[in-house]
Amino acid sequence: MGPLEKVAKSLLGDNFNIANMVAESSLVFINADEHLDYPQPTSHKFVYIGGLGQAQPKPLETKYEEIMNSSKKGVILVSFGSVAQSYKMPDLMKKKFLETFAHFPEITFLWKYEKDEDNIAHGYDNVITGNWLPQTDLLAHPKMLAFISHGGANSVMEASYAGVPLLCIPLMGDQYRNAQMAEYRKIATVVQKPEILEGKLTEAIKKIVDDDRIGLTSSPKANPQVSIQSSSIGANQTPDLIPSPDPNF
């Protein structure tokens, strides 16, 4: 018995069978974007809802607008989500990130770093930190060059909708698959965590900034309405797909 089945039985009783439940379901909601995911067999029961809750980008606050517009070549956003916090990185890894950023003086690196008191960017003129950043709004800005991310599902979708290429550093769980999927779609390059200390980060940033093939499928800036409308259509049609006890049309 797998861990998922154990949890299900503890909540729903010993007679609950996941395999039977899936087979007998009228619908299966999939939190993914069918345009980003790998090609795979599908069914009329599958409804892709990835991006359904995607917020529309808003105009940036003045301080962020000034950061974006003052950068010579553009901005790279650095964020690893809400679980993997940058301030908990080993010091050697933080140093490697900063040394890498210093190789690109004409690019501004906007880094979600959760402890302002660390003053981590002191001495690095092209690095700006913040314990919270308006990710969706920043990604929509025309001067956003790339997004260094953990490869979380929402981050991959947000970047793809905005037409921003990704540099994925997967850390756990589905992030490895998400990163590989984005690379397969040619909207990302992937660096594994141990490779950061090997100097691969500098090489990857050069690749993603200079190689027009990375992100080509999502540039120029994509219209998120395309995927969101696709998800909305599926969600809105679900009542029509559920078997009705009424025999009439």
Automatic annotation (TrEMBL):
InterPro entries in the record: UDP-glycosyltransferase, UDP_glucos_trans
Give a single Pfam family match: UDPGT
- Name the CDD domains on file: GT1_Gtf-like (cd03784)
Q: Which UniProt keywords apply?
A: Glycosyltransferase, Transferase
- Report if keyword Plastid is assigned: no
Q: SUPFAM superfamilies attached here?
A: UDP-Glycosyltransferase/glycogen phosphorylase
From the record, give the transmembrane residue ranges: none
> Reaction catalysed by this chain?
glucuronate acceptor + UDP-alpha-D-glucuronate = acceptor beta-D-glucuronoside + UDP + H(+)
MF (Gene Ontology) = glucuronosyltransferase activity
Q: Which domain of life is it from?
A: Eukaryota
Return the broad EC class. Answer: transferase
- Enzyme Commission no: 2.4.1.17
Extract the ranges annotated as region (Disordered). Answer: 215-249
Please list the residue ranges that the record marks as compositionally biased, kind Polar residues: 216-239
Give the family from UniProt. Belongs to the UDP-glycosyltransferase family.
Name the UniProt record assigns to this protein: glucuronosyltransferase
What species is this protein from? Acrobeloides nanus
